Amino acid sequence: MIDATEQINAVRRQLGRRVLEAGEARVMTISQTYDAPLEDLWDACTNAERIPRWFMPISGDLRLDGRYQLKGNAGGTIERCDPPKGFAATWEFGGEVSWIEVRLTPVGDDRTRFELEHVAHVDQERWDQFGPGAVGVGWDLALLGLASYLAADGSGVTPEEGEAWSVSEQGRQFVTASSERWGEASVADGTDAEAARGAAERTTAFYTGAPPA
Question: pTM of the prediction?
Answer without folding.
Answer: 0.93
